Amino acid sequence: MTEPSDAPLADPVRYDEEEKYLVHGEYEIRQILQSLIARRALVSGCAMPRNHTFPTSIIEVLEDEDGVLIDGSASETINRSIEEARHVSCVSRLDRIHVQFKLHDLQRVQKEGQVAFLAPLPDSILRLQRREFYRLQVPVTQPMECAVAERHPDGETTYRNYRVLDISGGGIALAVQAEEPTLRPYKEFPGSLLHLPDSGPLCIRLMVKSLHRQLNQNGSESWRAGCQFTDLPRGGDALIQRYIFRLERQRSARERGAA
Q: Could you please report the per-residue DSSP string of 150-192?
C-alpha cells in the first residue's frame, strides 16, 4: 500500500506534442482498459485534490454500461479520499507505452467481498508511444530544482528556484506559488539551470506552454507550469534520458517487489 503524500500534485498537463496521442473513441478506450486487465498491469492512482496516491488495478470494464471498476485500498483513509475526489488520475504502462487517464464520479461498491470503485469510462486516454515524450513524476524523496533565469532591462540576470514536478525528454513541469506570476504561457527563459541529480547544472532554454491552477490540501492555491525545452546543450538530452531510465528501473524494481 502506498502512503498518502502531503506534497501538492497538480492535474497532469499535456505538452502540445502529446495531443496526437489522445485516444477518444469508446471502442479504443475499452480495448486499452481490457489490455490493462489482461496484463495484470499495476495502476498508480492519485485522488485529487487531496493528492493521496495509491496502487490499484482495473478489475472489469462493464459491457452493459459505460463503466469501469478499479480496486479499492486496504486503507480506509485512502478509500474516503477516492470517494470524495474531484477525480482520480491513473497512470500505467502497456508494453513500455505510457498510459494515463482520469476517472470521475467514483462510487464505492463491493466486488467479491472487497472494496472497489465504479466510475464512468474515461473521456480519453493518453497513450504515449514515443519514449522522448514519456513524462516521469519526480519522487518527493529525491527532489529536483530548476533555476529559471530572468533577464532585466538593466542587463542583470536573476534566478528563481522552482521544484520540478515531472520531467520528459521534451520538457518539465514546475510548481509555482499562486502569488508569483513570473511564468506566463509562451514566455521563454534562456540560460535557465536544471539541477539533475548526479550531474552538474544543465543550461537550458525553457518556454512556458501551459499554466494550471491547483488547490492544495490546506485550501491554498498554487499553479503548475508545463514548460518545453526549446534549447538543450550538446548531450543534454542524453543526460535527461539517463536520469529518466534510472528512475524507471527503480520504479520497476518496486513494482516487481509489490507483485
A: EE-TTS-EEEEEEEEEEE-SSEEEEEEETT-----TT-EEEEE
